[in-house]
């Protein structure tokens, strides 16, 4: 249909932006109110004793995580970033050690390695699920490599069959940054439970949230204890209780509050419902987009469950007849912001470019990631619950409007 595009001064499809996604309900409100009446708002003490491991609500959340993901240990943190640092400390990874990381993720997936004085080494991604490419991981392994940081990006499980094989053959640990994929499954197994340690985030943008917060899960008792020490001034513990063979520990204050814990507890109880709602919207959107030539729609590994933190789309500029950048700008003008390539490859950030270590962070080291960032990749958040099918109809209407009238802006 012929319309004047909003980017050229026409009327936008959305007159005002969609409201923020918000999934806090009555149960979370009641739990917080009850806690506020009685306190304490945090029940950690940074000294040996019962409260070194936190208060009753923090422990209750950790128990629910263990039950839900059928795992032996869960250690709450005040963010996934600090939990990622806890994972590096738990594994005893430090100066001189290398960890293979992805360039396509939130920065903490790589900077957590720097936080303990170790070296992040970037491997490339594949352009199907946007997670680490096993072939590239193999090429980056050296005698100093200790672990692989696998990010289940956008809610999609990484290629674990091959990654587990590589880790086994090379005696490497796996940390799963599962911040974006709570409830995702790889061939029947929950992501986050496949590696040696898994990390979850409860920041305000995530599927389940408590404002801020995170959890580390593992089946290894020693990793769990080292993570607990990292969380709460662990230097106060010394002596026989801890296995220090992987190094002594200086802790920090990475403690979750009781308020965050009661919210995260209620949210975790709703995880399956929230994922189900998201997946209904995903299916609805996919059905509407599948016949548009030039859009490559999300890939899901066979027998696996993607939970769609966002809805990823790859643009084939030639087939679509418009560049990714122009499409995104035109959609934004219609009222539907879309991503311009997600994040810049992480090695291009100043903290890596200013490196004082001998490791290659130059442009060109991960060409697939660079191509996604510069030309082909975009995503929409229109499938995030509590959005509705009506919102998706408007998104598709805007997209059709831009594509049908693209000649106006070429
Ligand atoms: C993949 C990934 N890892 C780690 C983090 C850090 O999470 P947090 O904000 O809880 O520290 C995020 C947050 O955006 C993320 O998306």
The small-molecule ligands in this entry are: pyridoxal-5'-phosphate
Task: Characterize the overall form.
Answer: globular
Chain-averaged pLDDT = 96
- The assigned CATH architecture of the largest domain is 3-Layer(aba) Sandwich
Q: What structural class do the secondary elements suggest?
A: alpha/beta
**Uncertain stretches of 5 or more adjacent residues:** none
| Tally of discrete structural domains | 2
- The radius of gyration is 22 Å
CATH C-level of the largest domain:
Alpha Beta
CATH topology of the largest domain: Aspartate Aminotransferase, domain 2
**Multimeric state:** single chain
Give the beta-strand count.
12
| End-to-end C-alpha gap | 17 Å
Describe it.
The protein has 410 residues and is of the alpha/beta class. It folds into 2 domains: 26-269, 3-Layer(aba) Sandwich (Aspartate Aminotransferase, domain 2); 271-408, Alpha-Beta Complex (Aspartate Aminotransferase, domain 1). Helices cover 37% and strands 12% of the residues. It is built from 14 helices and 12 strands. A 7-stranded mixed β-sheet has the order 1-9-8-5-4-2-3, with helices on both faces. Helix 3 packs across helix 7. The radius of gyration is 22 Å and the shape is globular. The two termini are 17 Å apart. The protein binds pyridoxal-5'-phosphate. Residues 79-81, 105-106, 108-109, 151, 177, 179-180, 201, 203, 214 line the site of pyridoxal-5'-phosphate (PLP).
